Task: structure prediction
Amino acid sequence: MECYIVTDLLLLIDCDGLNLVTMSPFSCELVRLQVQSVDKPLYRGTFHCFQSIIRQESMSGLYKGIGSPMMGLTFINAIVFGVQGNAMRRLGEDTPLNQFLAGAAAGTIQCVICCPMELAKTRMQMQGTGEKKSSSRKVYKNSLDCLARIYQREGIRGVNRGMVTTLIRETPGFGVYFLAYDLLTRSLGCEPEDPYMIPKLLFAGGMSGIASWLSTYPVDVIKSRLQADGVGGKYQYSSIMDCTRKSIQREGWRVFTRGLTSTLLRAFPVNAATFATVTLFLLYVRSDEAPKDCETAPLHAPIQTQTQPSSL
Result:
């Protein structure tokens, strides 16, 4: 697998780059729905949020915060791909349990990049919420400026705000993602000679993304609220437990489903396209061009990218 890590990584970057451009609007809606005030809600639901952003901030409002994921994409894919591949080789046997463990390890390590990236994305997406484009005052020029300003005010701790919740989300989330894809491709019989292999891969990838998000979505709501906390200089939460307790008190258990529709609408097509493209590409390259001393990954061995489990 080491022989093709550069080629595979470039493919993963291309897939995620396309996914970021096409699915960023859902990410902006997701964050705003998750963190809006229950006392004075700005949006009634996914579609109303979409309409409001376009009406108030134009189409560009849907793509706020896209710079941060674009910058961190290369590093995240390199970490995830390298860690998952090495973990599977060290574990030896290709089993569903090992797929989960390898995915969980990859999810844990990539949080170093993922947490600051999502913090900048969240702050950029919250900027100018509910304001007309002409009247909105930009606090941050771009994602780098956002992280620099946070670091000046709060230091390294501020840049890593939400790290614990990111770890709680990403570790099991990536594990479920890898496990679900492995189980689905095994059960569906995704073999090269199967005439329905591509639809099966699309289905397996899409459902894996949905399974991963459903398993960790409540944590993502808390993470988004903690990272958005402090916008405008006003802090509401002192800790993860404080955020969880206050959120449940104000909104009940339904708070953990805020923005779920946007997430699932994004999760299926993004992960379906990514998994199918990567698997087919690797199948082609490794069957025709792999040197004899290179291992050829089995078809059902999943390749993970930052489309999950992520709150683009």
